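Q&A log
Question type: sequence-to-structure
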Amino acid sequence: MLVRVLCLTILVRGLLGMWSLSDVSRWLKKTARRFSSRTQDNEAYRKRAAWAANAVGHRLLPKRPCLTQALVLQYILLRGGDELAQLHIGVAKEDEELQAHAWVERTDKVLIGGTASPHKYERFGDLEEKIGPVEPGTAS
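Response status: OK
Response body:
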């Protein structure tokens, strides 16, 4: 799993440098659903995937890895058949500056991005509301 997460992290970081967040998110969701195995939707898999995304993200992207990590984890979970994991983005004011953060939740449980994130950061509505739903099986 670590090699797959490493490759995904590099890909996602590169895509974020070229495309908008909504385009990256939409493409990742379509791709994950297109190749979904629907066999990995369990707690142990979610924990392992979150650990891998966190470990690779912190080592490969020492500054501000949260958005890339969250997108990678959401992709892995969707690919494994988990449709309940949601990417959230929020802001908080710290030392008179706005700080942005991304995290993934599943049924109100934070999988990556820190358990305090939903309370610390003001969410920008769910990303689904901003880019619209992506239907399973649709192609770009």
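Response note: The CA atoms of residues 86 and 105 lie 5 Å apart.
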